[in-house]
Write the structure tokens for this entry.
Amino acid sequence: MGFSRSFSFPLSHAEQLAAKASPFSLDSDEDAKLRSSEGFQVVRNYLANERSYPFCELHKPDNPEDEGAWLLHRDITHALILPILQIFRRASALAVTLLGTRTTADLEIAFRGDARGAFSWLQCFVAEEEDWCITKGCPACIVHYVLQSEPTVRLVLVAARLSQHLGQVSDPNSPCLPMFTFWLGSLRTALTNDPFWGPDYFDDIEPRARYLEDGIQDLIAQCCTLESVLQTSSETSCNNSSLISKTNEVVMTQDGGMRLKPSDLAKNQLSLIKEEENWMQRIIIGCWTALLADASHQWRNGASWKRGPVAMIRVKSLTS
């Protein structure tokens, strides 16, 4: 999907030192806000218990402070991309239900325009980066991998921008994820200091990231319409159970427990899982509800998602 940075082997002394430190940073105020966020702490607890992988030899921390920084940045990365992955999975489930096919190559037909482009991009990305998407492996490797290729940089940039739509959820009892717009500055600094990407790359990639963000927002809006159509159809159909079955099958195969379900179904299932997963379900449902509510609000007011200008740019990518 794009050019990737790489290390030489054996690693030089400078590369060994760089591997020991996270490319990202967090000031004390931002750290305090994250630690006071109930939703983010739920994600952290989930990862500590369900995604507890050891550090590799290259990244093994020298002290508890470094280990804590790696884990925090790993958890931020996971919390950032979690809503986008759930958007894609829910869109996939809706497409399967609408089209009556599980052939992945055909699912994009359910959408149109920029939404179709965003869905196809996410489909390719998730297929190629499945382990990274579910935070599988050394925490430091997960963090460093953000800068591994153009698609990973672009996705994290989009996720940070999109997080501003997740600040409010309809269920006051559901903890919500914080806004991660502050991470844009950290990402810019990391790219600037990286010898492969350099100081100009953030401005190079931002228009493409904005284009993908617009496509994802269009995807959300079209999912909102499909949800309404399918809901209306299910109310007049005696085969509603088959729709739920198809939706569940698609979503459950993705991420080993962190599954997005229709709200009514999710409420029934929350009592069947342990409390930690209960809260994770509530966060995911809250993210989806907030995004759909935002899309619905735009439509009710006759507005469309605003698209910024796309400039002619120099790229380090094989795809637009």
